[in-house]
């Protein structure tokens, strides 16, 4: 006795159950999402990516020429923010200066130990420049300090029973 279980899909925008397959729609530059017919009016419908074509048992790779926007995205150089694991604390200049003085280092001594320029240490302590990921790790190791925000603060908010923000909380739809 086999049972047929119908799997219900839900609109990714409003959360309503969809009776049909739904439409793949891009709204305001966001990534395409599967939405109901009602929400499909809010964006432009896009084509679903095609599966690779098979011929005589061997897969044939179907490639399309990249658009100018996707080529720019692929060629984008990575900046320092791509490598940072978290946010640097706001008071990093004071933390670095206090830890350096507690260890008894001058700015020149600290730069020598870390194999950095003295000007970089001065810029960190003035707050003119934030340390890169590699510099941050060197500073933390030598001065026994933590320069990254801990994620514990964010986790406490989530565990405290407060619901997280959803797209529906932020979205305001203007109807004509």
Strand order, main sheet: write it out: 4-3-5
Instruction: Note poorly predicted spans.
Output: none
Span of the ends, CA to CA: 52 Å
Number of helices: 9
Mean pLDDT: 76
**CATH homology-level superfamily of one domain:** lambda repressor-like DNA-binding domains
Q: Would you state the CATH class of one domain?
A: Mainly Alpha
From the spread of the alpha carbons, the general shape counts as elongated
What amount of the residues lies in strands? 5-15%
Strand segment count: 7
Biggest sheet overview: 3 strands, antiparallel
SSE topology string: EEEEHEEEHHHHHHHH
The helix/strand class is alpha+beta
Looking at the overall shape, the CATH architecture of one domain is Orthogonal Bundle
Structural summary, described in words:
The chain has 176 residues and is an alpha+beta fold. Among the domains are: 9-45, no CATH class; 92-143, 434 Repressor (Amino-terminal Domain), CATH 1.10.260. Helices cover 39% and strands 11% of the residues. It has helices at residues 37-40, 68-75, 80-83, 92-103, 107-114, 118-126, 133-143, 152-159, 167-170, and strands at 9-10, 17-18, 23-26, 33-35, 44-45, 53-55, 58-60. The chain has a three-stranded antiparallel sheet. A two-stranded antiparallel ribbon has the order 1-2. It has a two-stranded antiparallel sheet with strand order 6-7. Helix 5 (107-114) packs across helix 6. The longest helix is centred in the middle third of the chain and has 12 residues, at 92-103. The two termini are 52 Å apart.
